[in-house]
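Support request from a user on the community tier.

User writes: "When I paste my structure tokens into the form, the page sometimes reloads and wipes my input. The last time it worked, I copied everything first. Here is what I submitted, just in case something in the input itself triggers the reload:"
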């Protein structure tokens, strides 16, 4: 995620249990170790961050690394962990879980309100992944990675309720698995495709508007940043790739900056 306040990009390395940060050009990089796998984070309005840490939701001090657990909705799911998440524009934190073995549909998308009340919104995912909202706040997008689809829901901005589940986009086997996503100010949905070597840009109606070919097979997520919010930052993974695949794509695991012809929407902060 990009922070317009301090003009810095923040991203996570889930398996290495690290949070990274850098300026728009990649300079002034910092890294912070955390005590468990970290699937996602969002900045808080009062400072610091809220994160999906292991099976818990926690406050995280980005300077000291201090962690304060604030919710443990998955104590009875030892094989799960939190994966992707972000805040809606009312300051609620949405984060989804997944089965570590990538086998069982035990993942759930949760909504964490500013008073730290936790509500299970949608269940039955093997991997709950990238989420985002349309610019008018009427649609919530949620990625169902293993079933190769991006879902859409009607979203009530005031209450945080969702309804009208439907398939926004289906990804063919040849294009990999949909992973993290972001939404631009024109309403387009940008989805990173694990094992797809690409970012796919969908129009609000679901049609493919653009495909950005990446030099790595496993782009994992994307967000808009930079001073004008026109740069698409793309994370990628090296985990699980065989030596020959790494030789073919030696930049696997790198962070990329891609200029675009559109502008992003500033990420919201947690209100709690």
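"...and here is what came back when it finally went through:"
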């Amino acid at each position: 995620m990009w922070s317009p306040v301090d003009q810095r990009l923040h991203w996570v390395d889930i398996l290495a249990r690290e949070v990274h940060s850098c300026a728009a050009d990649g300079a002034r990089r910092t890294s912070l170790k955390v005590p468990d796998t970290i699937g996602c984070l969002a900045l808080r309005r009062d400072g610091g961050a809220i994160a999906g840490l292991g099976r818990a939701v926690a406050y995280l001090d980005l300077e000291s690394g201090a962690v304060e657990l604030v919710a443990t909705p998955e104590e009875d799911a030892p094989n799960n962990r939190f994966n992707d998440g972000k805040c809606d524009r009312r300051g609620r934190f949405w984060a989804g879980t997944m089965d570590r073995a990538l086998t069982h549909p035990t993942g759930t998308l949760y909504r964490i309100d500013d008073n730290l009340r936790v509500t299970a919104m949608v269940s039955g995912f093997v991997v709950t992944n990238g989420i985002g909202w349309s610019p008018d706040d009427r649609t919530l997008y949620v990625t169902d990675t293993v079933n190769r689809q991006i879902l859409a829901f009607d979203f009530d901005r005031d209450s945080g309720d969702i309804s009208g589940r439907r398939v926004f986009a289906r990804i063919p086997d040849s294009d990999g698995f949909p992973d993290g996503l972001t939404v631009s100010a024109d309403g387009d949905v940008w989805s990173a495709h694990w094992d797809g070597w690409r970012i796919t840009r969908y129009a609000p109606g679901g049609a493919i508007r653009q495909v950005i070919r990446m030099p790595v097979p496993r782009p994992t997520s994307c967000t808009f940043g930079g001073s004008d919010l026109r740069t698409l930052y793309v994370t990628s993974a090296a985990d699980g790739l065989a030596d020959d695949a790494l030789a073919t794509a030696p930049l696997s695991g790198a962070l990329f900056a891609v200029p675009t012809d559109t502008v992003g929407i500033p990420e919201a902060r947690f209100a709690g």
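Agent notes: The reload is a front-end session timeout and is unrelated to the input. The longest strand covers residues 162-170. Helices lie at 243-248. Escalated to web team.
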